[in-house]
Amino acid sequence: MSRNVRLGLFAAAGAMLAALLVWGFTGLPAFGDFQGEYGWILNDVAGHERHVTNVVASVVFDYRGFDTLGEEFILFAAAIGVALLLREARDDRERPRDEVRSDAVRAVGLMLVGPTVVVGLYLVAHGYLTPGGGFQGGVAVAAGVVLLYAAGRYRAYSAASPHGLVELAEGAGAGAYAAVGVAALFAGGLFLENVVELGTRGTLASGGTIPILNAAAGLEVTAAVVLLLHEFLEEVMYPA
Amino acid sequence: MSSTLVPLVVAVPLLAAAALGALGNFAPSRFDNLVAIAVAVAVTVFSVLLIFRSADQTIHYWFGGWKPRSGIAIGISFSVDPLVAGVAALIGVLATAALVVSWDYFGEQVPQHFHVLMLIFLGSMTGFALSSDLFNMFVFFELMSIAAFALTGYRIEQSSALQGAINFAVVNSIGAFMLLTGIALLYGRTGALNLAQIGQVLSRGRADGLVVVAFTLVVVGFLTKAGAVPFHFWLSDAYAVAPAPVCILFAGVMSDLGLHATGRTYWEGFSGVLGADAGSVRGVLVGLGVGTALLGGAMAFVQAGLKRMLAFVVISHVGIFLAAIGLLTARGLAGATVGIVADGLVKGALFCAVASLARRLGETDELSLHGRGTPIPITGAVLGVGAVGLAVVPPLAILSGDGWLRGLLVVASALTGGAVLRAAGRIFLGLGPKQDELLVEPQAGAEAELRRAPRAGALLWLPGVALLAAGLTLAFTPGLARRAVQHAKLSVDRPALARETLHGVRTPLPKPSFERSPAAYAYAGAAGLLAIGFAALGLYRRRVPVLVAAPMHRLKLLHDGVVGEYVTWLTVGTAVIGVLFAVLIAKRP
Asked: CA-CA distance, A33 to B298, in Å (whole number)?
């Protein structure tokens, strides 16, 4: 098929598809006129059933917590998949020289490592009280680690996050989520059912299994992002 | 009755994958493969137990214990009946076979990441099959895809492997966007993600633009995974380059899961609101199915590379079972489900044979292997008997439909059987010439790097024999179709299913009434004979008539590996199906 034929065919089909989509979207309720009851029901019940102040967290880690198990494993599988596809022998090669020369970048960047990690941990820890959570916070923590490379050097980043340890953390985070689900079965409940004391609403000790699952997600996301960057950076550091 | 086994068929493989991912660096070699086999066996056993435990009543399992409140689902559920559990058992059996074959197939140390991904792939497929929540199905659809993309590209030294994986990833990701957009439309209209609840809310309204477009997008998403024409182009590129053990799972069940989801979404979600338009939906789905079946059969027949040939066999059989599901009857659904399981075992067995050929002879090309198969006679037997199985199993499974439809599907399955039979005759009996200008020469695939094994390890051929025996036994067990129709009658009763899922009101299982007619055996016999005829024609014909050669040449040129063209066809297919539904459904007052 020639390029022009392809583009012509795509333009015609794309226009038809666009018209269909517009036709479909006009069937949606007007802005602010959503009739679904799901959100209202959860707003009513999540507070006293799950003792959380962030209803979104109760959906993510409990009412629809099984989706989150799958989503956590999507990230896990993606990181493992990248590691599989970018695998190669990495011995006998020259150490990369990539030290950042600018003192200003180094000073400010490295000063930010600590605060970034702390902010990330805060986001993870308070995910079920205020906006945030394991997924968002995990990325922030990983960003703190990545600053070691961005403002320092690759070897520092590498040394601060040894490969085996990161893979261990990633597996532990993903596995802990599934294990909490299975533990509920041993306690006589249904998969992922809360079997822990619910605690006092509005404090860190609240929400039953939600903080545990939230922490597991935080660990998994941090490790997965660090691992992904490891793999990509190695491609750049040791070009074939 | 609620059963603890339901979550375990997903949780155990995922938990094992995480454990292997965490500890794989410290475990002794082969430990990961052993763990993976043990988990696959466990999933198989659990699934088979679920077939029996759900025999009297469908199991509705609400995760976290969040049952619906006054008819509104607030959590996620799996619905398990014997048909669904049977598909889960197929997944478990094929995963076991794939992991056993991979023990001897790879002549090298396999990174533990391979087994981690195989376990995730296993768990995501069972989750996708069992879920009755549309968004949850999307999550498992994505998880399944991510694992499959990486497994396809396993042979990173081969540019064709990476190319196949990229085509797979691009086309399937666009399919996933379609699906997600459809889900967003449905959520906007119904406020629900549970299929039964979506069906309840939709059935109170009419089939307007939103319903038509959402149905189109969801079906296109699932049919892209299934590989129905014209969404199939990625499939032959990916299956031709993925390692043969991975193909056992791809070909045996992953594609058919797209069909399973199409059926489930139609019956639980759309059969109410589109009930008056069932004729239009039937026309489009059956038309797509027949087109896919014949195109896949024709393309399979002109391949010299066994893996690409089997990829087109998969496409053809997806078409056959799509036509059966598209009939929109309980018999069509029951026949397709039993057929998917029996046929999946046969296709899995054929990929076991391919793995054995690749490992022992270093190639999977019919022409260059001419007469060289004598050292591995059992593999030859699996390939030959499996070829006949490809021809006869689908016609046995199709339980209804007009004579002309069943006739066309017989031709398609005979083409697929004939193609594989021809290859078996050439490789193992040295029949026919060593050259054939009709056939497409294969590119170097995943096998090109394999070191040839000197001896035939039993682990290479035994799984193939077992899968083939199981598949043929299931296909010829008459009572199975009877029980399947009995359960399918409940699956197609949307209002009853919704009452059961959302309100816990049980519906008694209908009495079994169906008997497989002798016609099915006649069609199967005809397909078997026709397949032998096609094989003989492939081996001994003098020349190809222009009337066949010219269109086949055009067809071959379309499958050229250019992903931009694949995406164009996907867009064209979506637009045409959408416009067809729009014209047929919205024209009603």
From this structure: 52
Model confidence pLDDT, tens digit, residues A67-90: 999 999 999 999 999 999 998 755
Same domain? For A86 and A135 the reply is yes
Q: Are residues A110 and A222 in the same domain?
A: yes
**pLDDT tens-digit readout, A114-162:** 999 999 999 999 988 888 889 999 999 999 999 998 888 888 888 888 8
Please report the ipTM that was assigned to this predicted complex. 0.95
Confidence of residue A97 (pLDDT cuts 50, 70, 90): low
Does residue A36 fall inside a structural domain?
no
Closest B-chain CA to A35: B191
pLDDT for residue B524 is more than 50: yes
Identify all chain A residues contacting B36, using CB atoms and an 8 Å cutoff: none
Q: Is A187 at the interface with chain B, CB within 8 A? A: no
Long-range residue pairs from B401-405, CB within 8 A, at least 24 positions apart, any chain: B401/B323, B401/B324, B401/B327, B401/B332, B405/B286, B405/B290, B405/B323
Question: How many structural domains are present in chain B?
Answer: 1
Query: Does the residue B124 lie in any domain?
Result: yes
- Could you tell me if B289 and B322 are in contact, meaning their C-beta atoms sit under 8 angstroms apart? yes
Name which of B69, B120, B208 is nearest A27 (Cβ-Cβ).
B208
Chain A: closest CA distance from residue B469 (Å): 34
Pairwise CA distance, residues A76 & A167, whole Å? 10
Ramachandran sector of residue B287 (left: φ over 0; alpha: ψ -120 to 50; beta: rest) = alpha
A5 and A122 within one domain: no
Does residue B69 fall inside a structural domain? yes
* Enclosing domain of residue A9: 1-28
Closest CA–CA distance from residue A173 to any residue of chain B (Å): 8
Q: Do B187 and A36 touch (CB under 8 A)?
A: yes
User: Quick check: is B347 in a domain?
Assistant: no
Residue A229 and residue A167 share a domain: yes
Shortest Cα distance from B322 to chain A (angstroms)?
Answer: 23
pTM for the complete prediction? 0.96
Range of the domain at B79: 1-131
Asked if residue A112 and residue A16 are part of one domain, the reply reads: no
Within this chain, do residues A14 and A102 fall inside the same structural domain, yes or no?
no
Q: In terms of domains, do A189 and A227 share one?
A: yes
pLDDT digits (tens, 9 = 90+) for B406-416: 999 999 999 99
Number of folded domains in chain A?
2
8 Å CB contact of B117 and A10: no
What is the C-alpha separation between A137 and A120, in angstroms, rounded? Answer: 4
Lowest mean pLDDT among B25-29, B80-84, B326-330: B25-29
Q: Does some domain include residue A176?
A: yes
Mutate to test the interface with A, among B126, B146, B179 (most CBs of A within 10 A): B146
Please indicate, yes or no, whether residues A20 and A132 belong to a single structural domain of this protein.
no
**Across the interface, do B74 and A185 touch by the CB < 8 Å criterion?**
no
Distance from CA of A102 to the nearest CA of B (A): 38
Q: Is B375 on the interface with A (CB under 8 A)?
A: no
Average pLDDT over residues B317-331: 97
Instruction: Determine whether the interchain pair B564/A6 forms a contact, defined as Cβ–Cβ distance below 8 Å.
Output: yes
Range A152-189 burial, b when 16+ CB lie within 10 A, else e? bbbbbbbeebebeebbbbbbbbbbbbbbbbbbbbeeee
